[in-house]
Amino acid sequence: MIPSAIHLADGVPQAQIARPLGLSRNTVARALRSEGPPVYRQPPRPSAFDEYEARVRAILAEFPGMPSSVIAERLGWPGSESWFWKRVALLRPEYAPKDPADRLEHAPGDQAQCDLWFPPHRVPSATGEWDSFPVLVVVASYSR
């Protein structure tokens, strides 16, 4: 049971709640006064990469395949090379040319995928024997 529920419902003193939990009475009192669980907040800080990002984007727009080490050398990056490479790797997909094999598009009726399915159940045939017949399954490639 949570400390606030114990304190409010049973009237247990804060010191008695704090002792088995290994907490200070002040910590328990602060927890009881709070609206919810504590949230860690840290304001975003500017990165050393921020002043280079616009120039990196300009280079990637013109030469999307240029290695990160060459970009760092051209810009005079003073920091860690591996950290710079990781930041460039996050930007690079925005500038990479589209892969023609990445997305196939088919107009309605252009292509279908066919397969045979052998159901596990046997059914009576025209001759009166029980048999398992294959089923042709067809799915259109264009399905929206």
Write the layout of secondary structure elements.
Layout: H1 3-10, H2 14-21, H3 25-33, H4 50-62, H5 68-75, H6 81-91, E1 112-117, E2 123-124, E3 130-131, E4 135-140
Antiparallel strand pairs: 1-4, 2-3
Give an overview of the whole structure:
With 144 residues, this protein is an alpha+beta fold. It has 6 helices and 4 strands. Strands 1-4 form a two-stranded antiparallel sheet. The longest helix is centred in the middle third of the chain and has 13 residues, at 50-62.
User: Cα-atom Rg, whole angstroms?
Assistant: 33 Å
Uncertain stretches of 5 or more adjacent residues: none
Strand order of the largest sheet: 1-4
Strand segment tally: 4
Mean pLDDT: 85
User: What is the count of helical runs?
Assistant: 6
Structural class, from helix and strand content? alpha+beta
So what's the overall shape? flat
Helix percent band = 25-40%
Separation of the first and last Cα atoms: 51 Å
Task: Please trace the helix and strand order, writing H or E for each element.
Answer: HHHHHHEEEE
Q: Work out the strand percent.
A: 5-15%
Sketch the major β-sheet. Answer: 2 strands, antiparallel
Task: Write a brief caption for the model.
The chain has 144 residues and is of the alpha+beta class. It has helices at 3-10, 14-21, 25-33, 50-62, 68-75, 81-91; strands at residues 112-117, 123-124, 130-131, 135-140.
From the structure above, extract its key features.
40% helix; 4 strands; two-stranded antiparallel sheet; 144 residues
